[in-house]
Design goal:
two-stranded antiparallel sheet; alpha+beta
Length: about 120
């Protein structure tokens, strides 16, 4: 693989699943660079949050990676490190859930930038 052009390696790597891409990136520095070029389109991102002041949160860092799992995801959960944000949301006065139980009517305009817009009303 060391003599293949970067673009050819990218093309080959594009056919790999996430688990194989993860292993592909561990072979050499060159293949890691190839894998990194596919992160935005094929990888996953994990946000690390931190409290900002008394009533806000901000992203401290982002960690990009390829999945290394074969099985489907059965449960989504916060890690121990992120549990403090989940606990905060339970008590935060700004976290006001608005769950609709009945269908809602939606209105929006349709048209191009030159002509007049037509108002559509969708009753769900």
């Amino acid at each position: 693989f060391s003599d293949f052009p970067f673009e050819v390696l990218q093309h080959i790597a594009a056919y790999l699943d996430a688990f194989s891409l993860n292993n592909f990136s561990l072979v050499s520095k060159r293949l890691r660079d190839v894998s990194c070029s596919l992160l935005k389109s094929r990888g996953m991102v994990d946000f690390k949050w931190e409290k900002c002041g008394t009533d806000g949160w901000r992203v401290r860092s982002k960690s990009w990676y390829f999945s290394n799992g074969f099985t489907p995801i059965r449960k989504w959960a916060f890690s121990d490190e992120e549990a403090h944000m989940s606990n905060h949301l339970r008590e935060c006065s700004y976290f006001d859930r608005n769950v609709k139980t009945m269908p809602t009517a939606v209105c929006f305009g349709v048209g191009n930038s030159r002509g007049p817009k037509t108002l559509l009303h969708l009753a769900l």
